[in-house]
Amino acid sequence: MSKTIEKLNHVLADTYTLYLKTQNYHWNVTGPQFDTLHQLFGRQYAALALAIDEIAERIRALGALAPATYKEFEQLKSIGTGNSNYTAEEMVECLYKSHKKVVEIIKAALEAAETEDDAFTADMLTERIGAHDKDAWMLASTMKKTSKTTKLKEAS
Ligand SMILES: [Fe+2]
Fold it and tell me: Domains in the chain and their CATH numbers?
């Protein structure tokens, strides 16, 4: 098995784990921000589902079988599986950190793809980094405190 395929297996396992965790939080989030977060998580897991298919099919195109069982994903993944009892804030922070971790895993795969002169895989992974950065930005934006509210009220 090439280094690229080996690293792609890790990317697939972590992307799948993040998909399931995002779906968990879509279902189980509670609190005043429920609707906003429920919808944000919903959009993010739907996009992750498409990415999972793309990564798995790239592994197939490179000639290997794609890992596709919870047992294999458990052995290959780096991120945690999450916690249904988290508060909304903890869920957002957990997802944010997971996206950042997945970017690290993708960068290792990107390095392997570049070393093995696999331009298509490198392109796909570069696009994945952009997608995770965007998701992380959106999650981080919901965590920001609205400290300017008072000033704005005084100025208006
Ligand atoms: Fe839903």
Answer: 3-144 (1.20.1260.10)
For ligand 1, the distance from its centroid to the CA atom of residue 2, given in whole angstroms, is 38
Amino acid type, 92? V
Contact 102, 14 (CB under 8 A): yes
Cα–ligand 1 centroid distance for 27 (angstroms): 7
Burial class (CB in 10 A: 0-12, 13-18, 19+), 2: middle
Alpha carbon distance 91, 41 (integer Å): 10
Give the global pTM: 0.92
Q: Determine the distance separating the centroid of ligand 1 and the alpha carbon of 108, expressed in angstroms.
A: 32
Q: Tell me how far the alpha carbon of residue 50 lies from the centroid of ligand 1, in angstroms.
A: 16
Q: What confidence tens digit (pLDDT) does each residue in 74-114 have?
A: 999 999 999 999 999 999 999 999 999 999 999 999 999 99
pLDDT, position 143: 87
Asked whether 33 and 124 are in contact (CB, 8 A), the reply is: no
pLDDT one-digit tens code per residue, 118-149: 999 999 999 999 999 999 999 999 987 655 55
Residue 79, phi then psi, degrees to nearest 5: -85, 160
